[in-house]
Amino acid sequence: MESVGVSSRLCFILCVFFSAYFFAGVRSSSAELQILNAERRVDLSSHIIRVSLTLKVENIGTTPASELLLAFPPKQVDHLAWIQAAAVTGKRKKKTFLPLDVKPSTGPDGPNGTKHYSVTLVNKLGSGESVTLEVLYVLTHSLEPFPVEISQAESQLVYYHDSALVLSPYPIKSQETSFRTPTSRVESFTRLEPTDRSGTELKYGPYEDRPSYSFNPILLHFENNNPFAVVEELVREIEISHWGNLQVTEHYKLAHAGARQKGGFSRVDYQSRQHFGSSASFKHLLAELPLRVHSVYYRDDIGNISSSRLLIGSKKSELLIEPRYPLFGGWKATFVIGYGVPIQDFLFESADGARYLNYSFGCPFAETVVDKLTIKVVLPEGSEDPSVVVPFDVQQSLEKKHSYLDVVGRTVVVLEKRNVVPDHNTPFQVHYKFNPIFMLAEPLMLVSAFFFVFLATTVYLHMDLAIRKS
Ligand SMILES: *[C@@H]1O[C@H](CO)[C@@H](O)[C@H](O)[C@H]1NC(C)=O
Ligand SMILES: *[C@@H]1O[C@H](CO)[C@@H](O)[C@H](O)[C@H]1NC(C)=O
Ligand SMILES: *[C@@H]1O[C@H](CO)[C@@H](O)[C@H](O)[C@H]1NC(C)=O
C-alpha cells in the first residue's frame, strides 16, 4: 500500500517535471528560429487563389528544431482548402523536394487569433543550420465582387484583402511579396513603400528586419472575369460491378459565385461581347474523364442535353458541357453526368487477396471549387471489411443500398469533404474483402425469377383450363 502511494507520487512529480521541460523546450525551439529570406507569390488570376511561399529558415538557438510553424490570419484559415510543404535541397535545375507533413497546430493561437499550422521537419534542424522550404496553399471564396451587382455588359471587379508582410511567428530578415492579377486593369491598391507595379504584377518589398507577427493590411481592387464556378454540392456515386463495369453518376448543383447579374439578359448583346472576352459569365465547362470512358450522358431536370462534346484523346478524355443557358453571377444550374469505365482499369487485387478500388477523388471539372463533396462507393454484394486510404482528412461513414437483384443489399462507403479544389484530384483507395460465392447471387436471382415466372404461368394455364372445362 505504502510503496504504491510513494511510486504514484514519484510518477506524478516526474510527469510534471517532464511536461514542464517538454513545453519549455517546444516554446524555446519555436522562438529560436528566424527567417533569413521569405518570398511569397500570390496568384490571383482565377477565383481559386494559389500562394507559394519560399522560406529560408535558420536555427539561431542551441537545441535542434523538429517543427516549424506557419501562421494564418483567422479569416484566411477559414478559406484554406489545401496546404503542402517540402524541404528543398540543391540549386536551380538540380533541386530535389522532400515532402513534409503539415497539419493544424495543437499549440496555442498567436496574437489577434492567428492560427498556426505545424510543419514536421524530417531532418532536424541543428543549431546554426538553415533549410529552405517551399510551401503551397490554396484559398477559396476570398475574392469579394465589388460592385456586388453588374450588368451583362460590365466587367467584374473584385477586392482582395491580405498583408504586405508575410505573417510569421518568427522574425523575418528580408522579404518580398508579389501579386499577379488576371489583367493589367487594377482599379486601386494600397500603396506602401516600396511598391512596384508593372503590367499584371504588383510587388511589395523588399522589407528588412521585421519582428514576429508583423502584419500590414492591404487591399487590391482589380478586374477578374474568370468563371467563378462553384459546385455548392456534388454527389458522386461510384458503383462497382464485378461483371466488368464501373458506373459513375455525378449530381451537380453549380453556381456562378461572382458579382450578381443586374437587369435582363440579352442574347444578342451577349453573343457580341463573347468575342471580346469581357464577360464574367460562362458558357462551357470542361471535365477530364478517365481514358476509356463510355456511355456518357448529361441531363438536367428537363431531360437530356445534347450540347456536350466528348473528346477522346490518347492520354485523356475530356467532356465539354454547355448548360441550357450561359451562367451569370448568382445563377445556378443543376445537372447529372453519368458514364461507365472498364473495371480492370480501377479495380485491383492486393497482396492478401483482398480487392481495392483506386479512383480519383475530387471534381473532374477544371478550376472549380466544391463546397460540399460526397463520394459514395457502392461495393458489390457480399463485400466485407471496407477500409479507405485517402491522403487527407475526410469524414467517413457506411450505408446500405438495395437494388432490384440484390439479396442482402450492398455496402456503401460514404466519404464527405468540404472546400474541395483541383489539388484534391488525387487517387484514393477503398479496400474490401469479397466472397466469390456472391458472384452467383445475381444470376441465381435471375434464374429464380425466370423459374418463378415459369411456375406462375404454368399454374395460371392450369387454372385457365380448369375453368374452361366446367
Ligand atoms: C492586433 O490587432 C490590433 C488592432 O487591429 C493591431 O493594432 C495590432 O497591431 C495587432 N497585433 C498584432 C500582434 O498583430
Ligand atoms: C438520354 O441519353 C441516354 C444516353 O445517351 C439515353 O440512354 C436515353 O434514352 C436518353 N433519354 C432521353 C429522354 O432522350
Ligand atoms: C492508383 O492509380 C494511380 C494512377 O491513376 C497510380 O499512380 C497509383 O500508383 C495507384 N495507386 C495504387 C495504390 O494502386
What can you see in these coordinates?
The protein has 470 residues and is α+β, with helices and mostly antiparallel strands. Helices cover 15% and strands 49% of the residues. It contains 4 helices and 30 strands. The strands form 6 sheets. Strands 3-6-5-4-7-2-1-11-14-13 form a 10-stranded mixed β-sheet. The chain is globular. The termini are far apart. The model is unreliable at 1-6 and 10-31 (pLDDT under 50). The structure holds 2-acetamido-2-deoxy-beta-D-glucopyranose (NAG) (3 copies). One 2-acetamido-2-deoxy-beta-D-glucopyranose (NAG) binds at residues 111-112, 213, 215. The chain crosses the membrane at residues 437-461.
Précis, in short:
By secondary structure, the chain is of the alpha+beta class.
Instruction: Work out the radius of gyration.
Output: 29 Å
Principal-axis shape equals globular
Q: Helicity, in percent?
A: 10-25%
Query: What proportion strand?
Result: over 45%
Q: Tell me the CATH superfamily of the largest domain.
A: tricorn interacting facor f3 domain
- Low-pLDDT parts are 1-6, 10-31
Distance between the termini: 98 Å
What would you say the CATH architecture of the largest domain is?
Answer: Sandwich
Tell me, what is the CATH class of the largest domain?
Mainly Beta
Find the count of extended strands (DSSP E, 2+ residues). Answer: 30
By DSSP (H or I, 4+ residues per run), the number of helices equals: 4
Bound molecule kinds, no repeats: 2-acetamido-2-deoxy-beta-D-glucopyranose
Task: Record the strand order, biggest sheet.
Answer: 3-6-5-4-7-2-1-11-14-13
Profile the largest sheet: 10 strands, mixed
Count of domain modules: 2
